[in-house]
Amino acid sequence: MPNAKNAGAEEVGKPKFLLVGSTGCGKTAQIATLPGRTFAYLFDPSALATLRGFDIEYEAFGPTKVRLAAQSLSKGKQDSPQGKEDASEVYRLWETDFEDKVKSKFWDTIDNVAFDSFTTFSDIVMDRILYLNGRSGHFPQQDDWTAQMQAITNVVRTLVGMNKVLLFTAHDEFKQDEVSTRMQNVIILTGKLRTKIPLLFSEIYHMECKSTPEKIEYVAQTRPDRMNPAVRCTIRDLAMFHDMTIRDWTKPQEYGIGNLLKTKLGYNPTGYKHTPVVGVSASPVAKAG
Questions:
Q1: Distance between CA 180 and CA 226 in Å, rounded?
Q2: What tens digit of pLDDT does each residue of 160-170 get?
């Protein structure tokens, strides 16, 4: 039978990162640090502003028109919708794109897959579930939430099974945990997804911006504490707070997640590809997403 002392990189699989934190804490910028060929699914409208100028292939998905009609939860009344909605189509378009890439063996040529972010992707999934359940534009009901959780779980399990380096981002909020009643940072996911989804990632870091007017600094918390119980780290010998600041935007792979992959895990599949496009500024301010 297998023995853990003999387990190599093939048995362990490639690392799966989930970066959690508030807006502007440096999550999206870490995609630019990944060595090798990176593909990113972008659901946040501001993600490309952070990644522009770097050699990262991507597809962006987001609704161009959503339902604007006001609705009353207590009275069951709503305004008449104006125009055609297309928010419910976004998830279907993403699903088609993903399956087309599977059929064309596109994923075989990719080293790293990024997903930015869970928070906005969850909204896209819910738009589709409401449409399928005949409730577009209405408040979700229990079976809508259940279907959304199952769909998201299946998506993540599929991506994890591809054995690529994954880098997912998610937002969190400071609130009272429903079970422990403690005040802590909670990942913005539906119900049991807050517990189930982290189980699929080997690395869960809480990102934080600790910059001052004199110094730019982004930090990842790599060990759990009372405030961030979902944090997990399997990379050995990391300090509890690890500097993720990209100090030279012409060589982002020398910092952050990319540096951890190279120095701690020896990961450098096809050499460094990420260089700014000539004429495009890559300033620290522009890259703080």
A1: 11
A2: 999 899 999 99
Give the separation between CA 72 and CA 78, rounded to whole angstroms. Answer: 6
Give the side-chain half-sphere CA count within 13 A for 278: 0
In a domain, 155, yes or no: yes
| Structure tokens, 125 | 């999934």
Count how many residues are written for the chain: 289
**Strands (DSSP E) found in 147-192:** 165-170, 172-176, 183-187
Is 154 inside any structural domain? Answer: yes
The parent domain of residue 128 ranges over 13-64+84-265
Token pair of 57, please?
A: 């292939």
What digits encode the pLDDT tens for the residues 244-263?
999 999 999 999 999 999 99
Any domain includes 159: yes
CA angle 18, 24, 27 (to 5 degrees): 20
- Cα 192–Cα 194–Cα 196 angle in degrees, nearest 5: 65
Please give the C-alpha separations between residue 34 and each of 102, 189, 255, in angstroms, as whole numbers: 22, 25, 9
* Percentage of the chain modeled with pLDDT above 90: 55
- Is the bond leading into 136 cis (omega within 30 degrees of zero)? no
Reported pTM: 0.82
CATH of the domain at 237: 3.40.50
Q: What single DSSP character describes residue 26?
A: S
